[in-house]
Amino acid sequence: MATVLYITAHPLHPEESYSLAVGAEFIEAYRKANPADEVVHLDLYKENIPQIDADVLRGWGKLRSGSSFDQLSEAEESKVARLEEILHQFMAADKYVYVSPMWNFSVPPVLKAYTDATSIPGKTFKYTENGPVGLLPGKKALHIQASGSVYSEGPLATIEMGFSYLSKILRFYGIESEAIFVEGTAVSEQAPFVKEKAIALAKEVAKRF
């Protein structure tokens, strides 16, 4: 049995979001194809994801210098402990499905915060004399990304920083990823066809993911 983290980063409902609509269809198809697997839904807009702020940096610094958790301030302890929970859950999973819109050519801030929480040296990657090495090999990831224009190819591909960013971070952990692009939705007359095509692809990918 595999554990799948279904990580969504959109504040609206699937009826209002192209990325979430495709993601929901993917997960439904995945569950049918893999009934024994556990799917854990992380709605990042409802999760407590501490940003790396002064409390976190000071708390980490104290722990590195030998302090124990009970020597941290209340804010430091609560934020650092929550970040460890997020990290351990991420490391324990086998597969990851990220669902997000493209905002300002990249991912929503809440997804960036979540990614920051999982990018910890010695846990998801390490530095060696031969360069960085990912510590989570053998896992796989999928990113379902919706955008108003087409960014996966063509003249706008050079400014696509959503899947480009996420795939590079995951590769840093040793995780290979693929994408389903739901793009061109800003053109109202073609949006339904874009969605339909992406859903069909998602159902196919779910069978082999």
Automatic annotation (TrEMBL):
Superkingdom, taxonomy of origin: Bacteria
Reaction(s) catalysed (UniProt annotation): 2 a quinone + NADH + H(+) = 2 a 1,4-benzosemiquinone + NAD(+); N,N-dimethyl-1,4-phenylenediamine + anthranilate + 2 NAD(+) = 2-(4-dimethylaminophenyl)diazenylbenzoate + 2 NADH + 2 H(+)
Key word Lyase present: no
Assigned EC number: 1.6.5.-, 1.7.1.17
Domain Flavodoxin-like fold stretches: 3-200
Binding positions (FMN): 17-19, 102-105
Keyword field: Flavoprotein, FMN, NAD, Oxidoreductase
Cofactor: FMN
Pfam families for this protein: Flavodoxin_2
Function: Quinone reductase that provides resistance to thiol-specific stress caused by electrophilic quinones.
Family in the record: Belongs to the azoreductase type 1 family.
PANTHER family assigned: FMN-DEPENDENT NADH-AZOREDUCTASE 1, FMN-DEPENDENT NADH:QUINONE OXIDOREDUCTASE
Name recorded for this polypeptide: FMN dependent NADH:quinone oxidoreductase
